[in-house]
Amino acid sequence: MADNLRLRCDAYAAAPMNTPSHSAAALLQPFALGDLTLPNRMVITPLTRGRAGRERIPNPLMAEYYVQRSSAGLIVAEATTISEQANGWLESPGIYTDAMEAGWKGVTSAVHAAGGRIFLQLWHIGRASHSDFHGGSLPVSYSAVKIDGDGIHTPLGKKPYETPRALEAWEIAGVVADYRRAAARARAAGFDGVEIHAANGYLLDQFLQAKTNLRTDDYGGSIEKRTRLLKEVVEAVSAEWPAQRVGVRISPKWIARPMGRPQGAPRLMSGS
Which residues of 73-109 are buried (b: 16+ CB within 10 A; e: fewer)? Predict the structure, then answer.
């Protein structure tokens, strides 16, 4: 992966609250994030709002929401789907049509006018979706393994999770291309950077986790093979952005939906 890649992990290490790094004074100090200078060290993390409407187009209400938070050092905007196939959350925004790109441009322009900085989180839900979002076609995933969970809210009401369709090996290049196109649109829309969502049981995490990735091809089995798709996505996105403006969110200890690693399986990273 790119040498200067920014990594954000949901497995946070605890630290004493009386250390200088946790003082209010330190939080208000500038921070150099690669070539981007943040005026303080407070970051608004992605929070799915579901305010984009059925067409998934960012709107003035969303712009107002982000402007209200523009004094933070950095905003990472809500998870945003990279393609129609990636959808699976009611009225979440997308970044795969001209109208969506234009809608986001209104948001970034408003945030920049207020003095803020904003990244976009790129998202593919994978199996955590439902055929109601896809005109009757099954959601896609790494393997045909259904989520053991309470169900999903779809455009036609709450329904049980379905067994997804495993992506064919030849289809994966299309998913990577969708990430690259979405990254290019994010840059055209005026974002300051992007974060690749590879956590919390969504598509890229579904490939990463040994407990649920049952593939026997070049995208399953060893750690090198399970991380291959993420590596390809990072390389594709970094072709549209400087590496220091690309981040990845991972959650190696995430166990919901259910994820994780079987007992004795190799760890994705130390401490996971």
Answer: bbbbbbbbbbbebbbbbeebbbbbeeebbebbbbbbe
Catalytic residue among 161, 179, 202, 219: 202
Q: Whole-structure pTM over 0.85, yes or no?
A: yes
Active site annotation includes 219: no
| b/e map 252-267, b = 16+ CB within 10 Å | bebeebebbbeeeeee
- The domain spans of the chain are 6-248
How is residue 70 written in tokens?
């523009």
Cα 241 to the center of its chain, rounded Å: 16
Per-residue pLDDT of 76-89, as tens digits, reads: 999 999 999 999 99
Between 3.20.20.70, 3.40.50.11810, 3.40.50.10350, 3.40.50.10610, what CATH number should domain 6-248 receive? 3.20.20.70
